[in-house]
Amino acid sequence: MDSTILQPSIQEFINKNINTSISKLALQKNPFPDVEWISILNQIEAKTKAKDKLPTWFNTKNIIYPGKISVEQTSSEPTALYKTSIVSGESLIDLTGGFGVDDSFFASKIKSVVHCEINPELSEIVKHNFEQLNIENIECLAGDSFETLKRLNRKWDWIYIDPSRRNDAKGKVFMLKDCLPNVPENLDFYFENSNAILIKTAPLLDLSAGLSELKNVKAIHIVALENEVKELLWELHKDYEGEITLKTVNINKGIIDTFEFNMNQESVFPDYSLPKKYLFEPNSAIMKSGGFDAVAVNYNVAKLHKHSHLYTRDEIIDFPGRVFEITAAFPYNKNEMKSYLSGKQSNITTRNFPETVENIRKKWKIKDGGNLYTFFTTDANNNKIVLICAKIS
């Protein structure tokens, strides 16, 4: 760890250049010849990325940032906070510590946290940062986490793992066996050290693929931030063989929308209907979960079509997603399009529709934006329809 970066004059320079173009700065002469220019530029770039994602780190003095990739790959503060609702007990060991954001939040709930990091320099940086953040109940251990688990030889209330894809796995279907550490291969060993395991994966991982590689899954948490799915959390408990709960979570400005259902429950049978007064579009976490019938039955809304994943009813309700009032509904044809939309401005969404948004815009000369929201979809009678809507929430 290069602590020269903490010199007050360098820290002042870094703070003054947040949001400044790195490519432009790179062309300038280094005002601090005793420190590598690339190191200073890396600090500026990483701290800029942390401004919105990690405000606690951004607003704390003398934080040292690793490469920007570590900041890009780490959890945001809201998603890290959500994880604390899952874990409990006295002890937790993180086998893939990284920048340590998740551990800082675990430490607010768990008495003793161990941060394992295979990169010794990153481990040192994280230890320094925890000191700046006044977090005293996290121990940072550098080295291979498998060997660390063996050496410590104790039972933990929780093991936390955020496996990363190996470089040689690019282009392959995302599988956990292609990540480091190889969780499926090591799972029995992990269960020797803890009865509860929490695994974070990228949303790219297909749910059925994850379930084919793991065992004893009790719950899968699909976590979205401002309607963008950021991570999947796999909650495993030793010897658990019961129903798997799918929990969808959308965090938006401190408000958390949740919806959960049993993945293995017998099929539920939703109602189908032509468009009524209101249209409901599930948030991205629900879309990832595949619980399209479950959400229809739970919220008493009718589906427009089996594969459209849009819902309707005559009364407005509190719904986990976007809510619209339908102001016009018509068949998708030339005359209707010319009458309602050609040459106008609208936000366009397609669901179960044969044409792309780009093609529709070009074909009918529809500009992007404005206050209109238009859905191109298929109705319960298999007809291609257009719904013009006003957004309510």
UniProtKB/TrEMBL annotation:
Top-level division of the source organism's lineage: Bacteria
CDD domains xref list: AdoMet_MTases
Domain THUMP-like: 321-391
One protein family per Pfam: PG_1098_Fer
InterPro entries attached to this UniProt entry: PG_1098_Fer, SAM-dependent_MTases_sf, Thump-like
Occurrences of domain PG-1098 ferredoxin-like (ranges): 278-320
Listed name of the protein: SAM-dependent methyltransferase
